[in-house]
Each structure stands twice: as C-alpha cells, then as structure tokens.
Specification:
Two copies of one chain form a homodimer. Helices cover 43% and strands 12% of the residues of chain A. Chain A is α/β, with parallel strands linked by helices. Chain A has two domains: 157 residues, Alpha-Beta Complex (Aspartate Aminotransferase, domain 1), CATH 3.90.1150.10; 253 residues, Aspartate Aminotransferase, domain 2 (3-Layer(aba) Sandwich). In chain A, strand 4, helix 10 and strand 5 form a beta-alpha-beta unit.
Amino acid sequence: MTPEDFRAYGHQLVDWVADYWRRLAEQPATLPVQPPVKPGQVAGQLPSKPPAHGEPIEAVLADLDQIITPATTHWQHPGFFGYFPANTSGPSVLGDLISSGLGTQGMLWSTGPAATELETVMLDWLVDLLGLPARFHSHGPGGGVIQDSASSAALVATLAALHRASDGAWRTAGVDRRYTVYTSTEGHSSIEKAVRIAGLGESALRLVEVDPQTLAMRPDALRDQLAADRAAGATPALVVATIGTTSTTAIDPLPQIGEICTQEQVWLHVDAAYAGSAAVCPELRWTHAGVAHADSYCFDPHKWLLTGFDCDAFWVADRAELVAALTVLPEYLRNAATSTGAVIDYRDWQVPLGRRFRALKLWFVLRWYGAEGLRAHIRHGVALAARFADLVRADDRFELVTDHPFALVCFRLRGGDDASNERLLTRLNAAGEVFLTHTRVNGRYTLRLAVGSPHTTEETIDALWRDLRRLAELA
Amino acid sequence: MTPEDFRAYGHQLVDWVADYWRRLAEQPATLPVQPPVKPGQVAGQLPSKPPAHGEPIEAVLADLDQIITPATTHWQHPGFFGYFPANTSGPSVLGDLISSGLGTQGMLWSTGPAATELETVMLDWLVDLLGLPARFHSHGPGGGVIQDSASSAALVATLAALHRASDGAWRTAGVDRRYTVYTSTEGHSSIEKAVRIAGLGESALRLVEVDPQTLAMRPDALRDQLAADRAAGATPALVVATIGTTSTTAIDPLPQIGEICTQEQVWLHVDAAYAGSAAVCPELRWTHAGVAHADSYCFDPHKWLLTGFDCDAFWVADRAELVAALTVLPEYLRNAATSTGAVIDYRDWQVPLGRRFRALKLWFVLRWYGAEGLRAHIRHGVALAARFADLVRADDRFELVTDHPFALVCFRLRGGDDASNERLLTRLNAAGEVFLTHTRVNGRYTLRLAVGSPHTTEETIDALWRDLRRLAELA
C-alpha cells in the first residue's frame, strides 16, 4: 500500500470512525449497547481460510459493517454503564494513529528516545495532575511507566516486593520460602492472578476482612493476619490496598494500612485502577489520603480519563528496585546509551520486552483537554451518578447498597430477592438502550451503574430511570 | 472533541502519516534512521507541568514535528536493519484505527463477541497460512490467541507447563518443588525473564549447549541435562526450542527435541518470534520440521508480517490446560455466555484482564495482501539478505559468520578484532543512512543485518555495501 493509497483509505476510515461515533450518540439509539448475537455467529460468517490473493479495502469495510459492527459490544455508547468504563476520545485516537504510523518499538531509550522521554514526562505530569506524592516523580529515585493494565501493574509490584522481601535472593533462588500477600476480600481478581503467576500459589493470598458497612479493609484484621503469619514462619511480602474497589468503589483506609506496612516493612501497592482519575479534582483528593505511604501506585487513564485502552499509569517510589527485579541484559541489547546509565530503558519496568509508543495518546489527551477539561469530565460523571442515586433514594421500591464517592452507583430492589434483581437487570439490558452489570454485596445480588462516557447526559440517566421504574412493576 | 472535529483533524493526521512514510522512503534520505539525540533532550523541551486549559491540536502537531519526530528512531525506515524488524503497513494502521475508534475491551466474549471470534478465526487462518499442525486449530482441543509479545507468550507457556508438571497443584501450592526449564545458550532473554517472573529463580534455568557451527541446541546435551536433573530430584517442566534465534537465526532440531520432550513428558514451547513469518512460504517450511511436537508455539506478525506492534500469535495444543492455569472468575465478571461454556473468554489466555481488538489489524493485513502478497514480501527480504550475503562472500576482507536461512545476515571483518568491528559498526551507523546492531557469536563481536522493511530495495543494500567497503579501509 503506497502512502497515497493510505492517504485515501485513511480519510475514508477516519470518516467511518466519525460516523460511528455520531451513530452511537443518536437519539433514539440505533445501535444496541450489547448486540443480540449468538456464539459462533461471527465466525460462521467468515471464510475458513485466508484469501490467496489480496482484496480491496472496500471488501473489508463491507464486512466490517455487516459482520463486525453488529456483533460488537459498544463500550463507547452513552448507555454503557457496565463494569468500569473504558472510554476513548478523539485526541486519544489521533495520538494512537501517529503512534501506529511511526511504528516505534521503544524497548530501549536508544530505540525510541522520544517515546521514552515523552512517557517519563507524561507520568510526571500525571503526578502533578493527580496531586500524587512527589516521591513518584522522576526527578528523585522514583518514576512512572505505562503498563498495559492494572493487572500487569499488580504483577510487577508483586515481583519487586518479592525482590525486596528476599534481599534480592529471589532473582536466583525463586520462591524459596513461604511468602504471603494481602488484600481485602474486595480486592481485584488480578491480585489473585499475580500471586499465582509469581509462583506463590493461592495459598499465599490473605483476603483480609472488610468492614461490612464500608466494605473497606479493616486495619486491625490486617495487623492480626500479619502477626499470625509471621508467627507461623511466613514472610509477608506485599499488601495491596484499593482506592475504589471493582465491586463497589470502597476505599481502603490508607493512613492506617500505610503505617502498618511501614512498621512491618512490607511493600504497599495501591490499586486505584478506576478511581485514580478522580484525583484530578481537588475536591476528590480526600479519597487518596495516605497514598504517600505507597511503594507503588497505579491507575488507568484508559478507564475514566478519556485515553483509549491500553494505558495504565504505574509508579514506584524506588525505580532501582523495580529495575533490579526485572532486568535481563543480553549482548544483542547492549548499546552506548544504556551503558552510560543516564537513560531509562522501559523494558526493565515491565513483563514484555517490546513496547508501543503509548505516551503519544496520553499527550494528545492531556493537551487537548487540559487539567480543567479533565476535571469537567470527571465532575460530569460524578454529578450524573449523584443524580441517579438521588432518584433511587427517593423511590422506596429501590435502595442504595453502598456509598457512591465516584461515579458508580450500587443499588437493588428494596424488597427483592436475588432472582428478582437478576431478572430486572436482564430485562433492563434486553432493550439495548443501556447496559449495566452486577456484583454481590455481602452476598446479595446488586446492580451496578458505572457512568463514564462523556456522551452520557441527564436525559440518558432519566430515560434509564423511567425504564427501571417500569420494569420494577414486573419484577 | 466532536465527531466533526475528529473528522477534520483525523484527515490532517492521516496526511501526516502518509507524508512521514513518503519522507522515510526519499532518496537521498532526509531522516536519519537513528537520530543524533542526547539523553534529556526531549524532556528538556517539554513543559514540566500539564496545561491548565486545553490547547489546539495544531500546537501538539507543531511539537510533534519539532520535538518528537527529530528524536525518533525510525523503525519503518528502509535503512533500518537493527535487532529484528518491527514493520507495520498501511492496512495494519487502518485496522488499528478502527480498533481505536470502536474502543472495544474484549476481556470476555460477551464484552466483545466480534473481537473474540475474529481473533479465533484469524489465528485459525494463520495455522493454514503457515502450515502449522492442525492440533493448533480451534476446531479441536487447541487454539490460538494474540499476546502482546513473544515474552508474554513464553511466560504463559511457562505457567501452563508448571500447571501440568504439578498435576494442577501449582495453582494453590505455588512453586513447591524444584522445577527446571531448558533452552539453549542462544535462547531469548525473555525465557530467563519468564523463569524469574514465575518464581523459579534463575537457578532453575538450564542453558543447554549448542553445536558451535550451527548454534542449534544439541539434543544429546538436552537429554543428558534432563537425566542429571531428574537424578538430582528436580522436576523438568518446560523446554523452549527456538526457530530463528535472536542472535543469528539458528534453528534448534525440533524432530529430536520433540521426541525427547514426548518421552520425558515435558512441555515443549517453540519460540519462532521472528522466523515464524517465513513459514508462509512453502519453500521455507523446512525450518519448521518437527513443530508438530510442540505443546505451544508462537511467532510475531509484528516482526516480519507487516502487522504493527503489538501482535504475537500464540497457540496451544490443549486450550483447557492454559485456561485452567490462568482463570480467575470473580462475581462481577460472571455472565450468561461464559456460564454456557460455549464461548472463549480470552482474558483466561493471558496475563492482563483487559484487551484491545488487535485481530482487526491482522484481518486488514491478511486480506489486503493475501497469502501470495505476504509470500512476496518474505521472499523480497530473503532475496535482499542473500544479495548482501553474496557481496560479503565475494570480498575477502569480510566473512559470513553463520548461515542465513531467513533475512538476517551475520558478518564481520575477516581479520578484524572485536574493536575494529565495533568501530566499523559505529561509523556505519553514524551517517544515519542505515542502522545495524551487533551480537557476539562464539564470543566474537559480529554485525547483524536484518532485512524486513518492504521499502528496502536492492539499491539500499548496494549503497550500504559501498559504505561498508569504504569504511573497511579505515577500520
């Protein structure tokens, strides 16, 4: 494909994306948030073998429209309230387009000087933007890096913690003693996965009790568990505290947890995958109280900060520890810049060797919106969630299940059992106007409404509420 | 940013990419392959804090041109011969643009039915295209998935192998015995990293001797090492064989290694990260002899198959084993489709939970080029490498260091010591017309020329050769 072919097709595909985004926001909705598609339906429409000879882009676009789009869950839809959001934006897609075009593989500073340094500066910008501790800024011993996801951040935090807990012996000896890892019963599944991947086995994971009201980790329970494990001969290596748990956005009490970790000399990783974005608003920074205790911290601009997946921002207070845990230097990667020690080689901050130039999309987003624009976006989501919570609160057929410090509202039918709440969710989603998911809170089936799209409006919320009230009659 | 803003800016940025690609191919070159940039130069030109208010895209584009592009190592340059290639193409960038615009997060089938099924079909297409064993096709117990890189593929293969070697005990108990992992002394550094991440420690890694001529693993040495380890009470868990080692593209003898792994009941992972693409050409499939023994196999379409980073294609012969090793199912991810068991949830095939819709770029590439187009691309690279090797062979000041079955040529000054070869490489790269990297072969400094760009021509090779001969006079 020549540059001139690409120019012509590129314009066409940019138009495709612009038209798609316009369709998503149309009222009434013409695209169902979740498509009525059966397993095997997409595969069944595709040839079983690749073409022998090249086909025109037009043929691919026709299949895109007829096979792919109708079988797509529309994460960018204003009625998408499931899981946590994963919103992109115009500037993010533009930045990613440049990244694709440059095709930089920035495993080393020398293979992508601009990719490396822009990433460092963007992560420093985010420290400023979120009011994070100065120890994460690259001007000192700390620093930040883009991971693909909070899962991978949890994994590398686990590895760095093992390296520290073993005084470096782990690199050579592996898991040579009984290490333990702590998170709350509400901690994310990626922590269990990280513990398994790191070879500790699930038996090493301690799910610390939460307060049944706030669903936040109980510091006394953490302290007791640490003491019991030490008494039993285990080596506590890592505590993962959460700001904004996946189920209900509970906030673990970092000031107390942090003190315990300092006393016990255990690595503290803070997972703020979803809720970290809220810290761009000064009035929401109370949610980050105690974060200065963290040895590592991450949040996902790809969830609630208008940056397309994948973009997890991860910081450590001591980058030397992380690099020592992860570095491997074969001859074919040696180069003059690395040997000076004056540069960052981000391959040593992550699991994979290769890496894309993901800082570009973040740069486009942060400059296009500016701090005030991003604050307006977060406040918009928080306000819509509050609007919805007020509607729930005012109707005695429903109840709020937990607080809603961010833009997630957990609710259910007040008198309803699990089955009636599950039916309500199924019926609500069936029409395709909105998509919500569920969780269990203290064992009970609970609906989750996570606002995130910049295209969601008061009218989207009000229409959803009308549907909910109507369906509640049937439940 | 409205869809209409995006449309206008998008056209501008597509033009930027088209113009950039045109400039890369200009003769004489106007962009040096590796820029003359000092550490800190990019960061020093950027503000230390994010803007308070949004800025126009024009301002970002001006900085892109003045700060970023001049500090970029141009991986898509026709004179880029370093490492292994990481070539993208027009159709790949187009597919990725659609992926960015859709913003699908395909962690579950239900969150991206089209993303999931297109990925399965694309991986099946590649089985056909490369002539891989039918056991990797999804119609049986096997199947394929896109990983970010061969590093991550090596890691998940290690985890599945541990799961098997422990009869499933590893998930709960972790590394509860002395496992050993085998690759050759020429195996990729990611295997050492995977062993470390999995908690085995580097002491678990056995670097099996190679034949000093072919640099391929010696099956007898593997057999001896396995026997010695078993005798010492270790549990061999994984052998990683390589088709096309990073240093010199050596090919481990899979027929013999595979037989040993079958006898010893050890998981065999085959890493063909670079060289796998060659198998699209029937005349190069001899390099894959014995691959039917593999429990898992990977190659990187993002290296030599015109698909932008990241796109590693990874298969297992038994997907149930992989999923059993990696799955974690919290309540908030439960859904009707998953509970039927009729769908693939790719989150259980990888380390992270979230995932982009990467199958789209592969689909665009495979359809635009077709099998014949991709074969022509591979043959073009192989022929140019052969042309260069012939020039080296015909000049008694130089020598070929190894065979060149693919498109990598390893060479050096015949009489030169390490220092003179290193000087030669530094001088050759300094002009910015080409960029090569080095390795050590049997301890001796060796230059590597890896052809990969579709824009590299006979004239690029001949000009490089003229420079080399001129510089050899000075060495």
